Amino acid sequence: MYFIVVKFQTKPEWTDRWLGLVDDFTRATRAEPGNLWFEWSRSVENPHEFVLVEAFTDDGAAPHVQSEHFQKAMKDLPQALASTPKIVSRQVEGEGWGEMGEMQVEPTPGG
């Protein structure tokens, strides 16, 4: 699978509108056959930094970057950004999330 993390630094005037700006892109990507997850988070240290964690099957990554919605996002998103996004993209073994081996938590009743 391809595991990707991207950090986006928004311009202050776009920070509160960022998730709206990426909504169509997010929905279209999540609907792709090869997408395993596409999840946005916000930095607890920098309110203008959004972190995207995404994963694709081995066959899903190439069609994603060739898709119409990806190409549109590459044109639309820069207007809201203060700098070029930073990325880590790696092909890794596995097909999804696994449990953390160093820590085990017993489920609570009813939870």
Protein described:
Keywords: Monooxygenase, Oxidoreductase. This is Antibiotic biosynthesis monooxygenase. GO terms for molecular function: monooxygenase activity. Residues 1-75 form the ABM domain. α3 runs antiparallel to α5 (68-76). The relative contact order is 0.28. The two termini are 30 Å apart. The chain has 111 residues and is an alpha+beta fold. It has helices at 12-15, 18-21, 23-30, 61-66, 68-76, and strands at 2-9, 35-42, 49-56, 86-91. It has a domain at 2-45 and 58-84: 2-Layer Sandwich (Alpha-Beta Plaits). Helix content is 28%, strand content 27%. The protein has a 4-stranded antiparallel sheet with strand order 2-3-1-4, with helices on one face. The chain contains 5 helices and 4 strands, in the order βαααββααβ.
List its traits.
111 residues; alpha+beta; Alpha-Beta Plaits; 5 helices; globular; AI-2_Isomerase_LsrG; Dimeric_a/b-barrel; oxidoreductase
Order of helices and strands: EHHHEEHHE
| First-last Cα distance | 30 Å
Structural class: alpha+beta
The 3D shape can be described as: globular
What is the fold-level CATH name, i.e. the topology of one domain? Alpha-Beta Plaits
Please identify, by name, the CATH architecture of one domain.
2-Layer Sandwich
